[in-house]
Amino acid sequence: MANLRLMITLITVLVYLLPSFAKSSESTKVITLPKSLNLTLLTDPSTISTASHDYGNVTAVTPGGVLCPSSSAEISRLLRYAANGDTIFQVAARGQGHSLNGQASVSGGVVINMTCLADITVSEDKEYADVAGGTLWVDVLRETAEQGVSPVSWTDYLHISVGGTLSNAGIGGQMFRNGPQISNVLELDVITGKGETLACSPQLNPELFYGVLGGLGQFGIISRARIVLNHAPKRAKWFKMLYSDFTAFTKDQESLISMNNDTGVDYVEGQQLMSNGIVDTSFFPPSDQSKVADLVKNHSIIYVLEVAKYYDDPTVPTTGQVIDKLTKTLSYLPGFISMHDVPYFDFLNRVQAEEDKLRSLALWEVPHPWLNLYVPKTQILDFHNGVVKDILLKQNSTSGVALFYPTNRNKWDNRMSAMIPDEDVFYVVGLLQSASSQNVQEVESVNEAIISFCKDSGIKIKQYLMHFTRKEDWVGHFGSKWGAFSKRKDLFDPKKLLSPGQDIF
Ligand code: FAD
């Protein structure tokens, strides 16, 4: 989801001011556990500081201690004590802390560093992998691909944890065909807010299973997930094509996500390039880069259709035939197409190089006031006119990436906690802006204006990775599922200990 040049644009100068604008919580109370629990909480300043911040870099919430568990039994012990002991404290599981608004934090409570429990076991028949909740997706890919298999649904960025994405949804360009990551889990081990460890699946404890998937960490801590595997292709042909016409762009995207495996591609995403942002042309050959930049300047907005087709053997002609046919039927601007032929691992891990570069420039840990929305297909044109043209394009400048791609609702299971629009096809719109101390509030105001516009115009968006501070917004978000969501909380975490940083209960 990162785009190097765009991110660098507005943020270079003010990085060192970061701590002064992260909204801070007051608590620094240290938690002392009884010796009989045999658990060690880390309370050194460096560990506490790390656990107080996240990728969003707009909040700072100080825990009373951090547990680096050596087994899931330790998590269970901690939660039993928190639920039954005299000292009440809340508990937040933390993957990589790549949340945006303190969702993996807890004021004065215990943060559990789930990455201490990373582990991957591929089944003998290679149909699934049992993965510890704190494992990073990049490690799951590395381990499974070595054995010739791979999960089927991916986020754009892989240095996030299995438990973290399953608590949200885990979305990306493969989900139009395979569903989000939460649709590709066979069973889970979950430690509830009462400290009980329960295995769950569609057949066993289904209430917990469906509750936890997209459940924002509210019902239990995922200590193990059984992830569906399939054949790991060797390479990917990765294309970007440019459009100046929004309707042609969305028509082609929607056509691509309706195709089956044999005739279609394996990955579909899209982006917008706007003349008030820095335009990253680096995917195109050097000889075309100025033409691409001019195109954006002349049209104000250019749409990038991004697709990938996986393959194993370059001598088998099928892949080439599919691509040939597709590229001939798509209505991109003639000549504005570029293809990279890359190993499967590199394609999936494509954001890593950008992270490395940003880190080397100290531009990774800046504020990220991101806004992620799902927009129903029938309202995407109104959204484009009202938000993209009338709000985003009218800003003096924008930074970061604007993702824009459709997906299919039939790959989601409505019994899960995750919320999506009520239409067969909906769009993922990721306005992934990077900010500085000077403009973070400005970007947040733009995000608020977008939400207000959608509300006033009746555009039925759902937010992803959202952070509401008012109960009525959560009730509105979950709609008819709110009753079930609160009942599950009473059932599995009655003392409301888990993931308080989500600010739901
Ligand atoms: P954390 O931020 O640590 O935790 C997220 C929430 O889950 C918290 O409430 C936490 O308490 C809870 N939690 C964490 N672990 C567990 C567990 N084991 N059991 C129960 N609850 C748990 N998301 C996508 O879907 N698609 C993308 O393409 C995508 N790209 C991204 C790119 C970048 C550069 C970044 C920074 C994030 C991206 N994300 C994407 C968002 C990502 O899914 C979230 O940040 C998510 O929260 C996972 O991050 P994490 O593992 O660090 O979880």
From TrEMBL:
Record key words, sorted: FAD, Flavoprotein, Oxidoreductase, Signal
Pfam families: Cytokin-bind, FAD_binding_4
EC numbers for this chain: 1.5.99.12
Source organism superkingdom: Eukaryota
Keyword Oxidoreductase: yes
Domain FAD-binding PCMH-type: 59-232
InterPro entries: Cytok_DH_C_sf, Cytokinin_DH_FAD/cytokin-bd, FAD-bd_PCMH, FAD-bd_PCMH-like_sf, FAD-bd_PCMH_sub1, FAD-bd_PCMH_sub2, FAD-linked_Oxase-like_C, FAD-linked_Oxidoreductases_BP
Top class in the EC scheme: oxidoreductase
Record's keyword annotation contains Protein biosynthesis: no
GO molecular function: cytokinin dehydrogenase activity; FAD binding; oxidoreductase activity
Gene3D superfamilies in the cross-refs: 3.30.465.10, FAD-linked oxidases, C-terminal domain (3.40.462.10), Uridine Diphospho-n-acetylenolpyruvylglucosamine Reductase, domain 2 (3.30.43.10)
Single Gene Ontology BP annotation: cytokinin metabolic process
Requisite cofactors: FAD
Reaction equations catalysed: N(6)-dimethylallyladenine + A + H2O = 3-methyl-2-butenal + adenine + AH2
Record-annotated membrane-spanning stretches: none
Residues of the signal peptide: 1-22
Family designation: Belongs to the oxygen-dependent FAD-linked oxidoreductase family.
PANTHER family, alphabetized: CYTOKININ DEHYDROGENASE, GULONOLACTONE OXIDASE
Protein name (record): cytokinin dehydrogenase
Biological source species: Brassica campestris (Field mustard)
